[in-house]
Amino acid sequence: MITGNHAAAMAAAMAGRANRSGRGFCSGVYPITPSTECMEFLCLQDIEKGHVVKVESEHSAMAVCVGASAAGARTFTTTGGNGLIYMSENVTVAAYLRLPVVMVVGNRAIGPPWNIWTDHSDSLTLRDSGWVQIYCWNNQEVFDAVLMAFRIAEDHRTLLPVMVCQEGFVLSHTMTLTEIAYQAQVDKFLPPLQLPHRLATTPRALGTFDTSHMIEAHREQHHAAMGMVWSAYREAQADFERIFGRHPPDPVVTYRTDDAQLALVSMGTIAETANQVVDDLRGRGLKVGSIRVCMFRPFPFDALKQAFAGIPRIAVIDRDISLGFGGALWGEARGLAEPGAIVQNFVTGLGGGDVRPEHIEEMVTEALGLTTSGPPVFIGVGE
Amino acid sequence: MNAKSKDPERKGYRSLLRAENEAVLANIPLPLEIRVHGRGGQGGVTCAKLCALVYSRLGLFAQTFGDYGMERAGAPVRAYTRIDRNPIKNRNKIYSPGHLLILDPSLLESGAMGGVRPGSLVLLNTPDPLAFFHGAYEEFRFAVVNATQIARKHRIGTSAVVIVNTTFVGAYARVVGLPLESLKETYSSLGLINDFEAAREAYDSVTAGENINPAAVSPMVTSPGSRSSLDVIPLTELTQDLPTPLKTGSWRTQSPRYVTLKSPCNHACPAGNDIVGFVQKLENQDLDAAAEILFGTQPLPSVCGRVCPAPCMAACNRGQYDGAVNIRGLERWIGDHATNYSVTKNMSASSKKVAVAGAGPAGVSAAYTLARAGHQVVIFDNQAKLGGILRNGIPAYRLPEEALDRDLNRLLALGVEHRPHQVITSVELERLAAEFDAVILATGQADSIAPEFPGIDLPGVEQGLTFLNRVKTDGKERIRGTVAVIGGGNTALDCAGTAVRCGAERVMIVYRRGRLEMPAIKEEIEDILLEGVELILYRQPVRIIGTGSVTGLELAEVQLGAPDGSGRRRPVVTKKLSRIACDHVLIAIGQRPNMGILPSGWLVRNQRVHYDEQPVNIWLAGDLTTGDGTVAHAIGNGRRIANEALSFLEERASCSMELSSSVPEVVTADGMRFSCFTTKKAHQDRRLDVASRIEGFSEVNLGLPIENESQRCLSCGNCAHCDTCLIYCPEGIITRLNQDYFINLDYCKGCGVCVWECPRHAMEMSPQG
Amino acid sequence: MKGSESPHYRRLLRPGNTNCGGCGMSVAFQMFRRSIGETNIQLVIPACCAAVAAGGFPYNAYEAPVLLSTFASAASTASGMAQVARLNGENTRVVCWAGDGGTYDIGLASLSGAAERNEDILFVCYDNEIYGNTGGQRSSATPVGAGASNIIKGKLEPKKDIMGIMAAHGIPYAATISLANPDDSKRKFERALREKGFRFLLILAPCPTGWKSDPSKTVELVRLAVRSGLYPVIEIENGRRWIINIEPDFSRADLERYLSLQRRFKKSEIRPDDMRRAIDLLWEKLRALAGCIT
């Protein structure tokens, strides 16, 4: 019985140890609710050839990771909410310098007005930062996703940092039964990191001035590396299953969508509730299904388009809001539906508000009644 | 048009302005695109702005912007201006400019000409004239102006980064036919009116090619390189070291170089010694190398190292910092210690026979020069031993015989023949001229000057030099009573010091000016005072008192008037009289040459004897003709005359370097960077204590204890390999291999730090190109 | 220093870099490189002129591996690099090379953090007393009286006492470097490279472009700043032992010449006399700290 935070910290520590025959493990950390216990737990771990630097800010925490990663070490940090926003400048650096940093984000609303509870707006604000983003729905997935994250981050086809997002408190502070791996398994899954552009003794500058057209080329290459994530992920899934006996989720997971007249689309723990509602409503004769987006960057266009095929009504549930636009997930997904399909956005659960089955049933009811899709609808506001 | 009507808000204002300037605009192809290429700091962006503002004043629409990047002072910069009758909507950079303005000629080779179509205007800032570009750029309207020179003259910018934009736009205005008046208005409105004169100068001096040959293709025109994204190395694949390929030397507007300037000591030395040269060798602990340099010009180092008034030390730049270098002491050190060094001698193919009359310093110097050049030299002198005044007229406590002999033996070792007891008469002179290829007459100032006042013939009155010679030769002279010495030079001091040593009870020096005006060596004055001699200053003897023998001296008080030709203030004798009692009077007011030895009808012109307007093979050297009065002057002149004679004998033009009129610049204290040196007091000569001195004729000055005084030499104007340039060079591009420095001009940005920091002015900046 | 140079020395800042002619930071690099010998140096450079000087991708104007960090993050980025070097038993010396902005201002928090953790880093601040990279705006290192592009009439507030701040962290070694005193500088660079733990060097680095001074006067300006007492040349061991290395002569002529060789003080209402008093107060404090109260 461990929390999401502890699951993340344990996975990170094991991944760190797994690099002891490489250049070791180094992490920069700074506490923020709801990720504090993850960083505390990590600090208490005994990691051979590893060190956790307890810095003075999130901005510096990521800077330590950037420096350590450039020096060839496996790196990890955790934060969320305002911590992530404060860190964001260096978050982009890790990506643009193509450093395989892994970060667990305990999703939290951005303040002030202060709110410490969960909200996907923090990590989604950084959706364009060049990181891979994975959204988890339980503690086991958090543990597994951290290990998977190192694998795809360090893959020479990708060399991209990976953000593993878990909802603050809902996962980070909730204890559930979680299977922890043996170190030997992790060693097998994560070979030592070999960073091709590691700074050693050869004079070489990382991060020098790019002219206009040169930076275009580097962005294009970065974008192409994102495209390599799919195959890297698939191979890692297979290895993971072989070593640990569990199958990490695909980038898009469908649930009872085969003959669905309405699909609920969501990320993280909301999908778990949505699946229950699907079961309930199907019991009442409504043909609904649920689609979970597990990977938001790179965005799984093909998988989602395939999942949407033949479904006339789609309700996209966002635990975030791009103000003046709508939910971020809806924004990406709405163009992938069948022509003529109604794609309605529901914004809910901001700042840690519970998303209960009745909220989702309300969405289903509303979505089934629509003749055309409208502006985003807020559900559960002010309850 | 009054100021009010120029309100830019007024509707139709631009079209009105345009109508007013239609004549000017008729020659300008619109829409017009201008591209400016400059280097960071030259003001390329402002140049483009100025063009835009000038056109805007004519009622046209303008757009202007810089191409900002990572540029620093000196790096290539581009700027763009668009001009049209209508508002401008294109915001891209300019790829095919109608007018191309290049502020730095080195940019021609780095893509500045890219995209320029035949017939376009190309205006280049360059020191080269239009003719230099003959055959190139014929397909363009090509014009050149030397804006850098003009802007530098008007002091726009710094020496390293000259801001040329305002100047350059003047040239542009001329080439495109823009009125100078609208330029002036533009500059005024921007607060740049101080630069307008430079613009006017450029307006007047720009030159443009006449014909355009659209078919010609210039070899240097290249189109801007295009790069495919596939060419860009991914960040994750950059593993090799790629040093920056930029040659920043092209940014430079001025270049540093190493120079050798004249040090003030070398400049001041009458003997022409390379003082910096030998002192620096001493500093490197190479005594023989120091001797080789010193002995190259100086046959009498042990002598000069003792008796020279050392004008070098008076000129020494270090004197204005923490005390002059004790150069005399160092010269003496070499003369006394370089005993293992033997003077080299050339073997002359056509050895000549030269007679030198007179064995004083000038004669010795001439003989030394000639002998070293491989000629046969015979010295004729009326004394038994060589040395002349040095042996007879300077007391041993100042110049011991062994020191003099050490120098003279070096001369004799060169094979110079000495014929003693030869009195040179006019008959003898004629004989020598016939017998020898050349004769150098250096008999010095043989006659002592006697003052013309009553009592001069009284017993007890004697010429100082006669006295000194007698004391030296018999060695037993004793004096009783009081001695008064008349004069203020070294001979006067020598008389006084000798009188003290001969037992005189009281010795006085009577001099008509002040102590500072005394021509004697300053240290010697201090010595003589320590020995108890009294100075009676501003007094002119008018009468020697006594009946049968001297009993006293009547003195008139002197006041100083206006400076005379020598710069010293002329003494004005007053009627205020006083007396002093004395038993002996020694006269030491100077000597004069005896020109009576020249046969009648022989004339001296430029130190050479002429007869019947024709030069004769006799030259005059030293005090006999110059009257400079110091050993160093005599040595210098002796050598110069010997070289003159040699030029004649070897039938070549007088090409002596020393007579050349192109004297290199002398480094003054202002040109030195004293802050680079730590203060270090001069090493003083050791001196015999006063009690021991006056007991006899032992040498008073015992010289330097060790030669490390040489470390104090700042080596003014002469590179001392101190590495200062190398240490401070911001680019790290100065290297040293043994004694040579190299500046890698491929990268030198011309900042001038090396030149400014050079402690000794052995580097200079010169404008590029 | 004389005779110390071989033509085949290791360069740290290579020729062909894009710094302005007469750049004080370039001179500082040349001084530094004479102290590194065969040591493996890794540079961390935050946003500043030294970052631009590295050149355009894929080239490198430094003869060392360089990581260009974000403006505020030099010390923390270097912390990561230094920790990894330690974990791997490497004697790599990680050196931050930051301007005054990346030290006194935006970089102060991460600098303070790394200093407090006593990370094994040498942090070098080349201080040109303005934000030179953005065209010369004021920083907290701008001295009183100096103008900048956003304070034409001169700064009213005194320069931040960064050495006092660093001393307060109790770091093993902190020193100021005078570019006009190469021997003292070489000794300090060597010591700073040798010491373990956090080390801090401050270098007054004239900026001809920003100070509007002649490029050739770069070292001379430092010399005058040192002699006039404006720029104390000191060392601080363990935050406790303050040592004055060069005694100024406090000459008014040097102060006035310092001010006259640059145009940034031209429009200031601060007079040399005001500066004189500030210098006196500074030295009174320094002497007390150095235990030689006069």
Keywords:
heterotrimer; B: about 775 residues; alpha/beta; Pyruvate-ferredoxin Oxidoreductase, domain 3; Alpha-Beta Plaits; FAD/NAD(P)-binding domain; 4 domains; 7-stranded mixed β-sheet; 30 strands; about 30% helix; elongated; disordered N terminus; C: about 290 residues; Rossmann fold; 8-stranded mixed β-sheet; 11 helices; 8 strands; globular
How would you describe this structure to a colleague?
The complex is a heterotrimer of chains A (383), B (769) and C (294). With 383 residues, chain A is an alpha/beta fold. Chain A contains 13 helices and 14 strands. Chain A has 2 domains: 4-244, Rossmann fold (3-Layer(aba) Sandwich); 252-378, Rossmann fold (3-Layer(aba) Sandwich), CATH 3.40.50.920. In chain A, α3 packs parallel to α4, α7 packs antiparallel against α9 (229-244) and α10 crosses α13. Chain A is globular. The mean pLDDT of chain A is 96. In chain B, 28% of the residues lie in helices and 20% in strands. The model of chain B is unreliable at 1-5, 220-227 and 655-661 (pLDDT under 50). Chain B has a 7-stranded mixed beta sheet with strand order 2-3-1-4-5-6-7, with helices on one face. Chain B contains 24 helices and 30 strands. With 294 residues, chain C is of the alpha/beta class. Chain C has an 8-stranded mixed beta sheet, sandwiched between helices. Chains in contact: A-B, A-C, B-C. Chains B and C meet through α23, β28 and α24 of B and α1, α2 and α9 of C. β7 (205-206) of chain A pairs parallel with β2 of chain C.
Quickly describe the structure:
With 383 residues, chain A is α/β, with parallel strands linked by helices.
- The CATH superfamily label of the largest domain in chain B reads Pyruvate-ferredoxin oxidoreductase, PFOR, domain III
Number of domains of chain B: 4
Low-confidence stretches of chain B: 1-5, 220-227, 655-661
On the 0 to 100 scale, the average pLDDT of chain B is: 88
CATH architecture designation of the largest domain in chain A: 3-Layer(aba) Sandwich
Largest sheet of chain B: 7 strands, mixed
Strand content of chain A: 15-25%
- List the quaternary state of the chains: heterotrimer
Topology pattern of chain A, helix = H, strand = E: HEHEHEHEHEHEHEHHEEHEEHEHEHE
* CATH H-level superfamily of the largest domain in chain A: Thiamin diphosphate (ThDP)-binding fold, Pyr/PP domains
Number of helices of chain B: 24
Q: What's the number of domains of chain A?
A: 2
